[in-house]
Amino acid sequence: MQGQMQDRPLLISSLIDFAERFHGDGEIVSRRVEGDIHRYTYADAAVRARQVANALDRLDLAAGSRVGTLAWNGYRHFELYYGVSGSGRILHTINPRLHPEQVAWIINHAEDEALCFDLTFLPIIKAIHAACRRVRQWVILCDRDAVPADTGIPGLLSYEDWIAGEATSYDWPDLDEDSAACLCYTSGTTGNPKGVLYSHRSSVLHAYAAAMPDVMCLSARDSVLPVVPMFHVNAWGIPYTAAATGCKLVFPGPALDGKSVYELMEAEKVTFAAGVPTVWQMLLGHMQQHGLRFSTLNRTVIGGSACPPAMISAFKDTYGVTVLHAWGMTEMSPLGTLCTLKNKHLALPPEEQLKILCTQGRPVFGVDMKIVDDAGHALPHDGVAQGELLVRGPWIVREYFKGEGGDPLIDGWFPTGDVATIDADGYLHITDRSKDVIKSGGEWISSIDVENIAMAHPAVAMAACLGMRHPKWDERPVIVVVKKPDAELTREQLLAFFLGKLSKWQIPDDVIFVDAIPLGATGKMQKIKLREQLAGYTLPGL
Ligand code: ADP
């Protein structure tokens, strides 16, 4: 027997319709590339998203055509999120921090037919536009007056001109909820970028899930600042969840330095923020230097790479801000797990609670996960056994765009490439990426554990642990360290700092001081590049 409930598709257009009708006066504040602050409401955004849809119809872009964006977090990008996907085209967000050649490669691979970009990225577009032969319309996200003369880009339109004459009404099509809505390429930390094609259904389900209390717990009373870019897995879904909850949205534009982010947070009474650890490093550095405090921020999601425990403590103890440590992937839209305590943990002493809060947290309802050994056998969820992490669920990739790389699934499960333990309550602890685990004398050393300890040293600004070839032990760990400005730290002092915190054999054999550790396009440490920079290095005593 069938259920007898209505069958309404889950569509991205319904999110903006909802926000317009029930949170029409909800504010969206953006720092623009032009430098000023722009303010308007969900109702205004909905009107302009419909104008975008009409402008795309005028271009005669078929359903399913790709529209690329190369843009910071801002209101025009938000309008494109809804105008493009809502009208049945596919929004393709591109990471502008990639090398221009890679940007061109991705535009061509995605077969983008229109491309909208911020003024900041004009030099990139100037360099690559001739190589992007499928793009029929280039749109620069500013007023006509702000478009520089003689860009050399044929037919370039300013965004404001592009949508200005368009009707403000539009009938969003009744799409199949499984049709494609957005395309996002993996950042390629582990190889060539591959496209992940989200559907309307997967994005809307993810938006519901992200709002849940033990996930982001967003509400109409929040003021939300995604520092995580709208080109990094759709700012972790916040533009969708925001419309579903009616929270105030605060977009930081291109100004991601500690001072700018702090000032925007204070001015706009931000209660909730989200970003990768390296961004918060800059913010905390600025606040420490100037003795600043938050007046309204009470929680922040940190993910994308392991959040060092020292950062979680600093937020909590010094600033009264709860860190929600999250784990996910481009292939997972991206939310997989997020860390909050359970009732039974509330009576634990603070050190015990901290231990739990440093894990990557429990699965969000909708995400199923398991760990397996080398032979693919499921391992127990006892918090001890570690193995490769596999996931499945309605917002997890089934196959990559254009079938790239073949069938990625193993019996219906997606292998994440991460190594983890899971405890009886479902708390996930990521030990490492499988390729970063250090194998020493048949035992595994977690590079994340070693880095977290180094990061707790007051003189350390950033730390990366690498396994170096060793004739007897296979590999031995070394720690590569960037010191804080003006801090004093010797090799011996840092090695002594590990004593008692790790088993002796897990302590790095050497400390390498460097001026900077290379960061990838999403702010993660690039160990492959770092390794290249250290070519020729030999372990002490060899
Ligand atoms: P890419 O895989 O191209 O770097 P993603 O942004 O999709 O791009 O990265 C996903 C990976 O990032 C995960 O598989 C995991 O290795 C790492 N990661 C994400 N969040 C965390 C976290 N909280 N702790 C440890 N690793 C994390």
Automatic annotation (TrEMBL):
UniProt KW keywords: Fatty acid metabolism, Ligase, Lipid metabolism
Pfam families linked: AMP-binding, AMP-binding_C
InterPro entries: AMP-bd_C, AMP-bd_C_sf, AMP-binding_CS, AMP-dep_synth/lig_dom, ANL_N_sf
Domain AMP-binding enzyme C-terminal stretches: 450-524
Domain of life: Bacteria
SUPFAM superfamilies named among the record's database cross-references: Acetyl-CoA synthetase-like
Keyword Cytoplasm found: no
GO biological process, one term: fatty acid metabolic process
Presence of the UniProt keyword Lipid biosynthesis in the record: no
AMP-dependent synthetase/ligase domain: residues covered: 30-401
Signal peptide (UniProt feature, chain positions): none
Molecular function terms from GO: ligase activity
Family: Belongs to the ATP-dependent AMP-binding enzyme family.
Stated name of the protein: Long-chain fatty acid--CoA ligase
Organism: Amnimonas aquatica
Source lineage: Bacteria, Pseudomonadati, Pseudomonadota, Gammaproteobacteria, Moraxellales
